[in-house]
Amino acid sequence: MQKKQAEVEAMESRLAEMSKRIGKLKERLTTVRGEVKTELERRIDTATAGQEEQRRRLHQLKDTGLEQWDSLKDQAGKAWDGLEKSLQDLAASLKK
User: Fold this and answer.
1) CA 45 to CA 25: how far, in whole Å?
2) Backbone angles phi, psi at 69, to 5 degrees
3) Whether the Cβ atoms of residue 41 and residue 32 lie closer than 8 Å to each other
4) What CA–CA distance (Å, rounded) separates 11 from 17?
5) Mean pLDDT, consecutive 10-residue segments, the chain of 96 residues?
6) What are the phi and psi torsion angles at 91 (to 5°)?
7) What confidence score (pLDDT) does residue 61 get?
8) Cα 29 to Cα 44: distance, rounded to the nearest angstrom
9) How far apart are CA 24 and CA 22, in angstroms?
10) Residue 25 belongs to domain spanning
């Protein structure tokens, strides 16, 4: 049970960090214009939606029993990886 609590806390911390990163990306949008800005705004909106989906999964994970924990945790882990890659790609796009 302690392991589950530690993992939940790590996920909550990761969500908070992603919120900060998304906020910084939104601030950097002021440096771009036109179609590039529109595309980056769309991608940020997609990342924000992904973050909300992870928040929903985290709440679902909190409510599961230990027998379901591993399966749901693995699913959430794959989604975390995709969201992380999306944020990295967005940051790289804004550096160009």
Assistant:
1) 11
2) -55, -50
3) no
4) 10
5) 81 92 89 89 92 88 73 74 83 77
6) -60, -40
7) 79
8) 10
9) 5
10) 2-95
